[in-house]
Amino acid sequence: METFIIFRSITPLAVSLIDAVFRPYISKLPSLKTASALLLIFFSACLYAMQDSELSVLAYTWGSAYVVILCVEIVRTGAFVCPRLGRHIH
């Protein structure tokens, strides 16, 4: 269960970067304060993964696939919903 939480905690950083790169007209890079917090979460997740005594390559493979699919889904949903609601995230 902890592994799932760690992988889920990585998605905000990934989504913010994907949004800024692929949808710059709607989203920009996070502020320094936000980016610092997201990076702290990311590095904490990496430290957890390195200290995981029950390291399972299969679990981390599924976790990585989950993060990729979730990030794509979040970005696609945002691209579909935000313009239709008349909102632009800046």
Task: Describe, in plain words, how this protein is organized in 3D.
By secondary structure, the chain is mainly α. It has one domain. It has helices spanning 2-22, 32-51, 57-85. The longest helix is centred in the C-terminal third of the chain and has 29 residues, at 57-85.
Compact description:
The chain has helices at 2-22, 32-51, 57-85. With 90 residues, the chain is mainly alpha-helical.
- The percent range for strand residues is under 5%
The helix-and-strand class reads mainly alpha
Quantity of strands, as a count: 0
The helicity comes to over 70%
Calculate the terminal CA-CA distance, rounded to whole Å: 34 Å
Total of domains: 1
Classify the oligomer: single chain
Order of helices and strands: HHH
Radius of gyration from the alpha-carbon trace, in angstroms? 15 Å
Shape designation: flat
Q: Which segments are poorly predicted (pLDDT under 50) over 5 or more consecutive residues? A: none
Major sheet characteristics: none
Total helical segments: 3
The average pLDDT value, as a whole number, equals 82
